[in-house]
Amino acid sequence: MGHVVAIFGTLIALNLGFGYWLSEQNQAEDPQEGVVEVEEVPVD
To answer: Distance between CA 39 and CA 9 in Å, rounded?
Structure first.
């Protein structure tokens, strides 16, 4: 049973590390400007 815990713990740690690495890569790139669309709705 201890082997299962060790394997899952390792997989979770790798997943968190990979997610952190991806977020750092995304932050290093130039941020994209957001586009906001505004629609006028007539009041009846």
So the answer is: 49
Please report, for residues 34, 35, 36, the alpha-carbon distance to residue 40 in angstroms, rounded to integers and kept in the order given.
20, 16, 13
pLDDT, position 44:
75
Position 1 pLDDT exceeds 90: no
Report the distance separating Cα 41 and Cα 21, nearest Å. 44
HEC sequence for 5-30: HHHHHHHHHHHHHHHHHHHHHHHHCC
Cα–Cα distances in angstroms (integers) from residue 15 to residues 6, 24, 26, 40, in the given order? 14, 14, 17, 45
